[in-house]
Specification:
Strand 18 and strand 19 form a beta hairpin. The chain is mostly beta strands and 386 residues long. The protein has one domain: TolB, C-terminal domain (Neuraminidase). The strands form six sheets. Strands 1, 2, 22, 23, 24 and 25 form a six-stranded mixed beta sheet that branches. A five-stranded antiparallel beta sheet has the order 12-13-14-15-17, with no helix packed on it. It has a five-stranded antiparallel beta sheet with strand order 16-21-20-19-18, with helices on one face. It is globular and about 55 Å long. The longest helix is centred in the first third of the chain and has 8 residues. It contains two helices and 28 strands. Helices cover 4% and strands 43% of the residues.
């Protein structure tokens, strides 16, 4: 039984056996080991400087400080976390801008037809600071997170509506968010060297205006069981949220977060790890650690944004390093899916798939210039496993 089958088996019932990803791996081999990817080796750089496997192509969707082609809307600086929202006739790609409010921070959207053609673009959030990652909700809003001390979560409305701050979700150095419709909670990462892993439990599912902020409590090991404890003061002043609960587990620089099949994965850039939280089992494990890859060298470092496909493949973007998007397959193999060349001062951000799973959007935050004004947003199409 592979990881995909195991994850889906966890929804059978409370009596089902929930074997953690890395526990399964330990029985059959080390977790997330280096391998040739399911699409084969990378080819040489294409016209956009992107190395892809055979059968895949890339296009430029937008460039910072230039009008999105086919529209009059000027794309924002430093594109960061992103998601795809279906809109009935096509889809919307939303993207954060990781700059200050004075420099135009916030978030934007690009609207696509069912054929993938750009049909519009506009701003959905303004006047916020260093919006890094975030996450989409089951009710098709985008949670845009400020990566600053006592940063806020803003709920934005790509389908129409005015963005609103959600202070009940805590004020800390936010990074990513992932919705769990089974437990009706939102998981949150914190980009601090002594950051924590949180969940927000709304009073009413679908309404993020009120609820309880909780933090993971666990030991110092890389695997074990955990519990949740309420954060007494989500406002984080005068005492930071990460310092309010004794026994809260520390994670070194929380980044991307992804939920699927009773499991939540999140990355920690400070130690190049991917953590897997097995929600039915009440346990956590290391799903990837660059120090554990054998044979080396590890293909994935600078771990950052993470997303996944319906088939169970995980896609992880690198912050710097060799500017790769790597993938981890359900049989625990890690490989490079694509590489962006000539962008040495940049990072890969905002990977997100369309609902059909046949297009992958992402950005090079600072492009070839190494400046916030040099951001480039791309789309990759091809025979993705679905």
């Amino acid at each position: 039984m592979d990881r995909r089958t195991m994850l889906r088996a966890t929804v059978v019932g409370a009596g089902a056996v929930a074997l953690p990803f890395t526990a399964w791996s330990a029985a059959y081999g080390a977790p997330a080991q280096n391998a040739v990817g399911p699409y084969g080796p990378l080819l040489g750089p294409d016209a956009n400087g992107i190395q892809l496997p055979a059968g895949f192509t890339s296009t430029v969707v937008a460039r910072s400080r230039q009008a999105v082609p086919g529209t009059s809307y000027v794309w924002h600086d430093a594109p960061d976390g992103g998601a795809v929202i279906p809109n009935g006739t096509g889809w919307i790609y939303v993207s954060n801008s990781e700059v200050t409010a004075s420099a135009g921070g916030g978030a934007s959207r690009i609207l696509f037809s069912s054929s993938g053609a750009v049909v519009g673009a506009s701003r959905i959030l303004s006047g916020t600071n260093v919006n890094c990652a975030g996450g989409k909700t089951p009710w098709n809003t985008w949670l845009s997170c400020e990566e600053v001390s006592r940063g806020r979560v803003f709920e934005t409305y790509p389908l129409g509506g005015t963005a609103v701050a959600r202070p009940a979700m805590g004020r800390f150095k936010h990074e990513a968010a992932a919705a769990d419709p089974v437990r009706r909670v939102i998981y949150l990462t914190e980009d601090e060297p002594d950051g924590k892993f949180y969940r927000f439990v709304p009073t009413t599912w679908g309404d993020l205006s009120a609820g309880a902020l909780e933090v993971m409590v666990a030991g110092g090991a890389t695997s074990g069981t955990f519990s949740w404890a309420r954060v007494p003061d989500p406002d984080g002043s005068p005492r930071a949220t990460r310092r309010q609960v004794s026994g809260a587990k520390t994670f070194n620089g929380g980044e991307g977060c992804h939920y699927a099949d009773d499991t939540v994965w999140f990355t920690t850039k400070g130690d190049n790890r991917i953590w897997q939280v097995n929600l039915n089992a009440g346990s956590y494990e290391l799903a990837y650690d660059d120090d554990l890859v054998n044979p080396g060298p590890a293909p994935l470092s600078g771990v950052d944004n993470i997303t996944g496909t319906a088939g169970g493949d995980l896609y992880i973007a690198e912050d710097g390093a060799t500017m790769d998007i790597c993938m981890i397959t359900p049989d625990d193999k890690v490989s490079v899916f694509l590489r962006v060349t000539g962008h040495d001062g940049s990072e890969i951000t905002g990977p997100a798939f369309t609902p059909a799973g046949d297009r992958l959007y992402f950005s090079s935050q600072r492009g070839t210039t190494g400046l916030s004004s040099g951001g480039i947003t791309y789309c990759v199409t091809g025979p993705f496993r679905r």
